[in-house]
Fold this sequence. Notes:
- There is one protein chain.
- The protein has about 575 residues and is α/β, with parallel strands linked by helices.
- The protein has 20 helices and twelve strands.
- It has helices at about 10-45, 50-95, 100-105, 110-135, 135-150, 155-200, 200-205, 210-235, 240-265, 270-310, 370-375, 400-405, 425, 435-445, 450, 470-485, 500-515, 530, 550-555, 560-570, and strands spanning about 330-340, 350-355, 360-365, 385-390, 395, 410, 420, 460-465, 490-495, 520-525, 535-540, 545-550.
- The protein starts with 11 loop residues before the first helix and ends with a helix.
- The model has no long low-confidence stretch (mean pLDDT about 80).
Amino acid sequence: MLKLYKGLGKYAGQLLLLVLLLLGQVFALLMLPNMMSTIIDQGVIVGDMGYITTAGLIMLGISLGGSACAIGVGYFASKVGVGFCTDVRKKLFHKVGEFTMAEFDKVGTASLTTRTTNDIMQIQDFTIMLFRVIILAPIMCIGGVAMSMQKNAQLAWVIIACMPLIVVFLVLVMRKAFPIFKSVQSKLDQVNLVMRENITGVRVIRAFTAEGREEKRFEEANEVMTQTSIKSQTLLSTLMPILMLIVNLGTIAVVWFGGQQIAQGSLAVGDLMAFIQYLVLIMYALVMMSMIFAMMPRASVCADRINEVMDIEPDIVNSKNPRMPQEKTGVVEFKNVTFKYGDAEKPAIANISFCAQPGQTTAIIGATGSGKSSVIMLIPRLYDTTEGEVLVDGVNVRDYDVHELRRRIGYVPQKAVLFSGTIKENIAYEDEDMPEEKLEKAARIAQADTFIEQKKKKYDDPIAQGGSNVSGGQKQRLAIARALATDASIYVFDDSFSALDFKTDAALRKAIKENTQGATVIIVAQRINTIIDADNILVLDKGRIIGQGTHDELVKTCGVYAEIARTQMS
């Protein structure tokens, strides 16, 4: 947890002010009982109204000063706590942005969401409370004990005797609480996972009338988290009653022994009143410390979960000495490339070798699971090869600056993803200041202008989260327009035409060919019609290339391709 708090250095000035205000608040709290004792013993008993008035005004001033310090403590504690957690959230978001697909698979999207939101909120609440208590409570306890010793050493030992009991009890509770809170956060991850799947898959759930089954899944995950949370809160709920019991027993002992000393004349009434006030202050400090200890286990677990993400080193990093090719032509070459996912026993693709030339269309076709998407995800370095090389313009993609490499590639993923905003913002995703002519040209090539013009606000029409307010074909065309709006020399389409009708598909392919004549075009497709005019077609089966050539050549030489063609074109 201390590792996470290293970022507090930038708030050193505000923390110094916070410490000074806390000291002022403690001074006020400790001085008031002592002055009250003096007024009772020297003012009330003697009957000196002038002294009572003067001392009362001084106490009022100290009270107002202490209140002002308390307000300042709350302000700066909140400002530092919220500011620090805002910085942590930014760093975490930036770190997640550097992750490769392998890291996303390792941690999980639902868990990353929980860590970025709930976990940081838990740390924020703990940090604000910590800054308000970390100096105030210990000094109040020590000061209260010291002032009590000054008033009456014998009675002070009653308070001192209570302290070890409280510490031992707190330690025992914390030891049991840490593993439970770790379990609570993991159970929250599971609830988020089920919730996320239900939101994103709502259409499928309704289509199969599986609402009951999904409700049962959610209830099970929710019930597990509820029971774990109840267990943790039940444990923490023992803190306050036992703490109050110890303190109240101490108060009874103080009044009992103090009353005897007053009867014997060895203790003044004002001193006993002050002593009780110090005991109340010490109790207040202990209550605040118990709140910190109650929040600490969960905050510590959350901090460990955030540090776990921050400590992950992405598999794909920039080369220390990045290389740039002399010419930006767009040649893509695979040399004996083998790739497997994580700890998988068998590779997804093996011994893949081909060259995609500028001005040509290279197509990849094959059965589901044959490795088509795995091949093209290696070009923009979404994954790294296990063996072999992927070259862009003669330079290994590992030697590129990752951002420079991806700027050369217009990539349309298999699942078209749109962001909340407007049509214009989605197409001009690479450049917010993209000229209108360029944006409209990309939409026209992608055959998206026809439905955009029918929208009420044209290019300013809103897009809902995930593109849920447009059809599958419209979503694909907008994703294609987004790629075509870049200044790429390589265009990669991963089965991006599957939701288009044959007429739109043909018009789109014709427009792409006419407007990307100097670029390299790589298309992954399931339909023969989409790739029939490609200059070079790769046929994949079980992660290996079993055929390569034009459509006419493959129909004669590749049995798998001929079977696909015969099935689709009969």
